[in-house]
Amino acid sequence: MHLLEVMNLKKIYTTRYGGHQVQALTNVSFTVEKGEYVAIMGESGSGKTTLLNIIAALDKPTSGEVWLDGRNIVTIKEREISAFRRDHLGFVFQDFNLLDNFSLKDNILLPLVLAGKSYKEMISRLNRIANKLGIIHLLEKFPYEVSGGEKQRAAVARGLITGPQLILADEPTGALDSRATDSLLRLFNEINDEGQTILMVTHSTKAASHAKRVLFIKDGQVFHQIYKGSMSYEQMYQKIADTLTLITTGGVRHE
Amino acid sequence: MSKFFYAKLALNNIRKNSQTYAPYIMTCIATVMMYYINYSLAAHTGLSRISGGFTLKTILSFGVAIVGLFSLIFLFYTNSFLIKRRKKEIGLLNILGMEKKHIGRVMIIETCYVALISLSSGLLFGMLLSKLMSLLLMKILRFKVELGFEISFPAIRSTLMVFSGIFVLTLLSNLRQIHLAKPVELLRGGQVGEKEPNTKWLLILVGLITLGSGYYIALTTESPLGALSMFFTAVILVMIGTYCLFTAGSIGILKLLRKNKMIYYRPQNFTTISGMIYRMKQNAVGLANICILSTMVLVTLSTTVSLYIGVEDVLKTRYPRDIMIMASDDLNIQDISWEILEKHGKEPENLVDYFYYSLPIQQKGNQFIVNSGLANSAVRYRDLKALHFISVADYQRITGRDVDLAPNAILLYDVHRDYPYDTINILGREFIIKERLDSLETDGQDAMLVINSYYVVLSDLAFLEHVIEADASTSYYLGFNLIAEDSEIIRIQQEIRTALRELDSRITVDGLQASRNDFYSIYGGLFFLGIFLGILFILGTMLIIYYKQITEGFDDRQRFEIMQKVGMSKAEVKQSIGRQVLSVFFLPLIVATIHIAFAFKFIWRLLMLFNITKISLFVWCTMGTLLVFALFYSIFYLMTSRMYYKIVT
Ligand SMILES: Nc1ncnc2c1ncn2[C@@H]1O[C@H](COP(=O)(O)OP(=O)(O)OP(=O)(O)O)[C@@H](O)[C@H]1O
Ligand SMILES: [Mg+2]
After folding, report:
1. Quick check: B183 pLDDT over 70?
2. Which candidate in B180, B288, B560, B649 could, as Cys together with B246 as Cys, close a disulfide (CB 3.0–4.6 Å)?
3. Residue B380's pLDDT is what?
4. How many CB atoms within 10 Å of residue B198?
5. What local confidence, expressed as pLDDT, does residue B192 receive?
6. Which bin fits A220, alpha (ψ -120 to 50), beta or left (φ > 0)?
């Protein structure tokens, strides 16, 4: 069974004052297996964030289904959705989304506290993860006291601490400089090697070249996909770059 | 052309920020209106023709000053909220190439608009409502006269001057802030100072000490005069304490709670505690303001209502008879008075007349001694008493009782019922208190004295001589009632006064009816002012709450968004918001209630200066105002928290 199965997703935004409609997703279908590391690429406005929001159950599709671990999350009741999201999904955002009135430690613990876990369990999980991400010395600091890269590490720790089946990341490297980007990508590879499934939206060819598979979205549909297989990062990078050029120049074929 | 552009931009700004500007403009209008009304009443020509009008004018003028002062504070405070919220927008304009000079020009035009709208509508509403208010005032004072409608030009002039001054001041402070700030800071706007606040132990200590000593003074001050002299000290101490504890104490407590892992890391406490720490840092001063204003509302209303409701009682204690004559000797006062009564075909009813001898004296336990240094302040007010001596013969005559009194025994009427001993030693002579009297037909003078009075009925005339030699003043009191219309009683009283004054110019002739207007001018005037200021303070309280809620709403929106993304449900968000808003909202009210509880006895002493003697009346008035205020407060809470919730989600 697939870990994640997205079937015929369609999303039409209706602007507030009626009339004007935007079709963000036309018909998207794909699957993700357990342990995979998938990057989603596409031009600005192609519907990547929309897709990710629907998978995260933050938004409802106009039609279509999303199955995660055997459950259709589109039909999960509003009441259970937060708990479901907390238990099954981890998030990493472009702008970190850390709460500035919490220390990094409390930010990381937030999902566990919300889940009502005991303090002892929280601490043992925290220590394990903080150790792995190398932020143990930063735990008592506040977000405004640490660098962007360190903030993103803390955000990743928060995403991982519940032991989710799937990590969703929207442009995780978007606000980082190249050194911090490298270190975050290495981190993603490490946790992926340990079996963590990752689905990442990105604009960065470099970031995508670290994934095991890259999906290209255009005009609200999956346009193409590349498997990394045994390619090196450089080869993968080249291939992605070529595909992107193809999409932007050869994209006229739909008209 | 370019002038036109700025004017349009200014108008646009106001319209775009209407959520924050509308309440500001409404406050401006309301304060302008209240100032005008108060001033026009104080300056009303009709008032000068009323008896007691002068007192009333003084009270109302005092009100004008207070309204002016608080208008300044409120408008300044509100304005600071506005400018904080708008810094980002101004920063953007600045970065996009608008010079600070030009931004300043826009702000000047904006202020002009606001001033124009507020002054014109405020004055208009003020003129319309001043008639209504004068009717209310006359109703409260129970005067039968009507104050005609008049447009008061002095009031208009003063309103224009005061509020133009306030607007100029706010504008200057805004311009200064814009001028000093760097564009990047402007862009960040309200977001500066996200730092975690430190616990300031020194401030907590200062707060505890000042609040404690304020409460201590309130609880231990026994004499009304002491209360009067300590009033402002106590108020200021409590205010300092309130500010310190709201700012530092709240954060201290919250941080202690956070240190306790078992409490802190619970879903229902986690976001609330950290959210409150953050909130308290930004809003502690606002909350302290709300608390102090609420306390002021409660004190003002409860005391003035007590005074007003108690005024008839006060009149009766102060003037137990319709006509009361006080002289240093009986001369032929009676003959002259009866002659006048006869002319009017009236008979004196409930006649009372007697001599008494008064001695200001120092009390030490059960010893009463004349102290040569009485005049200087070495003697504490609390120990200063007035002894009034009445011969047993006079007492028997006026009461009709038959008392058998030995030379070493006395009857004691102790007005405040606070004399604990069984014996009394006066000027070195020991007496046994044979009986404590429940009442005595006094001339009401004791009600005017702040020091306690004891009436001593005695049979030893030789000792009475000794007292008189010790410099006691002799008084003759004649009082009686009349069955007649109030107006006729007042006429008779004036005739008697004129006649007696020819006899001896020091003779005073008072009366219940004749003094009623004067009393209503004072007590009714204070009541009217109490209502007026009460409304002003409530307005201020609501204003601060409103701005607090919307600024917090905007600040919190992002935080709750994030929490929802990491797995907090809508219901949990709602709960967390509810808990935070509730505790933040009702904290000031609770503290205000505690203040009132501690101040109760203290204020009661002050009311005694105004001859309010029924403590039950004051208890009920305080509870009543507290209840009504809490009700308004809660309604306003429901309204603003809904608005807050809408902003956040
Ligand atoms: N809430 C919304 N209401 C209406 N239209 C929306 C809404 N959110 C997104 N859209 C539209 O849907 C389309 C897809 O938006 P989406 O944010 O998914 O793009 P994206 O691929 O994430 O772009 P980017 O790479 O710039 O982040 C865009 O045309 C956008 O204008
Ligand atoms: Mg996007």
Report:
1. no
2. B288
3. 66
4. 11
5. 44
6. left
Buried b (16+ CB within 10 A) or exposed e, B181-197: beeeebbbbeeeeeebb
Nearest to B196 among A78, A91, A142 (CB): A142
d(CA B558, CA B504): 83
- CA dist B59 → A54, B66, B141, B525, B529 (Å): 68, 11, 13, 6, 8
Q: A132-152, pLDDT tens digit by residue?
A: 888 899 999 888 888 888 888
Q: Which residue has the higher pLDDT, B381 or A111?
A: A111
* Residues in CB range of B525: below 8 A, 6 or more apart: B55, B56, B59, B60, B141
Q: Can you tell me whether residue B139 is helix, strand or coil?
A: helix
| Residue B509 Cα distances to B324, B327, B384, B481, B498, angstroms | 6, 9, 28, 13, 9
Mean of per-residue pLDDT scores for chain B: 84
Report residue B514 as tokens: 């004749």
For B278, half-sphere exposure in the C-beta direction (CA atoms, 13 angstrom radius) is 22
Q: To 10 degrees, what angle do helices B224-244 and B267-309 make?
A: 160
Q: Tell how far CA B305 is from the center of its chain.
A: 10
Residue whose Cα lies nearest atom 4 of ligand 1: it is: A13
Q: Which DSSP state fits B362? A: E
Whether B564 has its CB under 8 Å from any CB of chain A: the answer is yes
CB contact under 8 A, A86 and B278: no
Contact B267 A100 (CB under 8 A): no
Testing ligand 1's pocket by substitution, the residue of A46, A51, A199, A204 carrying the most ligand atoms inside 8 A of its CB is A46
Q: Which residue has the CA at smallest separation from atom 24 of ligand 1?
A: A44
pLDDT bracket for residue B485 (50, 70, 90): confident
Token pair of A137 as six digits: 């010395």
Residue among B261, B266, B278 minimizing CB distance to A101? B278
pLDDT of residue A254: 40
In a mutational test of the pocket of ligand 1, which residue from A48, A203, A247 has the highest number of ligand atoms less than 8 Å from its CB?
A48
Torsion angle, CA of A198/A204/A205/A210, rounded to 10 degrees? -30
C-alpha–C-alpha distance, residues A74 and A61, integer Å? 8
Between chains, do A101 and B274 touch, taking CB under 8 Å as contact? yes
Instruction: Report pLDDT for B595.
Output: 94
CB B492 within 8 A of CB B446: no
Indicate whether residue A67 lines ligand 1 (CB < 6 A): no
Phi/psi class of residue A8: alpha, beta or left (left: φ > 0; alpha: ψ in -120 to 50)? Answer: left
Question: How close does chain B come to A232, measured CA to CA in Å?
Answer: 35
Average pLDDT (B408-434) is: 86
Instruction: Give per-residue burial for A170-187: e unless 16+ CB within 10 Å, then b.
Output: bbbbbbbeeebbbebbeb
- SS3 call for B8: helix
Tokens of B266: 């619970």
Residue A220 CB–ligand 1 contact under 6 Å = no
CA of A188 to the centre of ligand 1 (A): 26
Query: In DSSP terms, which residues pair with B352 in a beta bridge?
Result: B479
- Give me the residue label for tokens 């507290």: B626
Q: Nearest CB to A91: which of B267, B566, B569?
A: B566
CB-nearest to A97 from B261, B265, B565 is: B565
ipTM, two decimals, is: 0.75
Cα of B557 to ligand 1 centre, how many Å? Answer: 21
Tell me the C-alpha distance between A64 and A68, whole Å.
13
* Residues in chain A within 8 Å Cβ distance of B194: 100-101, 144
pLDDT band for position B377 (50/70/90)?
low
